[in-house]
Specification:
Layout (H helix, E strand, L loop, with lengths): L3 H24 L8 H17 L5 H23 L5 H20 L4 E3 L2 E3 L12 H4 L4 H23 L2 H11 L1 H6 L4 H27 L9 H14 L5 H16 L7 H15 L7 H15 L2
Antiparallel strand pairs: 1-2
Helix pairs in contact: 1-6, 1-9, 1-10, 1-11, 2-3, 2-4, 2-9, 3-9, 6-9, 7-9, 10-11
Length: 301
């Protein structure tokens, strides 16, 4: 029987997988973003305001928060699309810090039942009580998280096996060749960033309602670094790659009590080893291709 602690870990894996997928979408287009936590936070606040203060249905609030995050992702990409490499990475980090610092000053509260509810700057945003008001158990909410994750994975899988996915990877491998072949680089990079922002937004909204309390410090640079690392560890050959990275960190390393005090050191060491010996991750493009050929051979026997 799953206890509440185990369900919390499992639900964390699901929610953080969404921001890891977000960073993965940017990676396959050839850029490195240290700012995906900004979209995670934008949706967390926007979606929580929608359910807690405006009384919106959960699913409408989820789409609303994720949509805002997607719009923000596309806008920042449009403003920074002509720079790349370390300059792009710094720009995304600067935007994320701007969002975090803005949330430290952001106050928007309503009086409900004699109590002031809503985000209040550095004091955070508590009383996000949709789960309790609707009598949702931890198990039910975990299943809801994985339903959203499954739909996201299925959507990204369809993209990866379409012309759009091919264009995204072409941008990451040889943008000059893509341009020569008539690919509108700016258009597709903005589209990828918008999708990435939306994916991170799904996780942020779910995170806020899972823990019922959020504060700006949650959306700091370490969340962005981890989301990026998950894709680099798990692999850039498939959307399942970043999820493997999340499971290794949150699922495996957190379960080993003997290294609890050294978890970040172990994770950093694992990251360094992976970059040396498997620079494209465990499930890189070559391994995914070999697995597909092996599977096709098995199914045709």
């Amino acid at each position: 029987m799953l206890n509440d602690y185990l369900l919390t870990v499992i639900s964390n894996i699901g929610m953080i997988s969404m921001i890891a997928i977000s960073a993965y979408l940017i990676l396959i287009t050839g850029e490195i973003s240290f700012g995906q936590q900004a979209y995670f936070g934008i949706s967390a606040y926007a979606g929580s305001i929608a359910t807690t203060l405006w009384g919106w249905p959960f699913w409408m609030a989820l789409i609303f928060g994720s949509f805002l995050a997607g719009v923000a992702g596309g806008l920042i990409s449009a403003l920074t699309v002509r720079i790349n490499g370390i300059y792009y990475s710094i720009a995304t980090l600067a935007f994320a810090e701007m969002v975090r610092l803005s949330l430290l000053k952001f106050s928007y509260q309503f009086e409900i039942d004699g109590e002031w509810i809503g985000p209040n700057g550095s004091e955070g945003f508590g009383e996000i009580r949709w789960i309790f008001e609707n009598d949702i158990s931890i198990l039910e909410y975990t299943l809801l998280i994985y339903l959203v994750l499954f739909l996201l994975i299925a959507f990204i899988y369809l993209i990866e096996h379409s012309k759009l996915g091919m264009i995204f990877r072409m941008l990451g491998q040889d943008p000059l060749l893509a341009s020569v072949q008539g690919v509108k680089i700016i258009r597709y990079k903005v589209l990828a960033a918008s999708l990435a922002g939306f994916a991170a937004g799904l996780g942020g909204m779910l995170y806020a309602h899972s823990f019922t309390y959020i504060e700006p410090q949650i959306f700091n640079v370490m969340l962005g670094v981890h989301s990026l690392a998950y894709g680099l560890i798990g692999g850039l050959g498939t959307v399942l790659g970043p999820i493997i990275g999340v499971v290794l960190d949150i699922g495996f390393l957190e379960s080993i009590r003997g290294i609890q005090g050294y978890r970040m050191i172990v994770f950093g060491g694992l990251m360094a080893v992976m970059l040396i010996f498997m620079p494209r991750g465990i499930l890189d493009e070559k391994r995914v291709h070999r697995f597909k050929k092996f599977w096709e051979g098995k199914t045709h026997v």
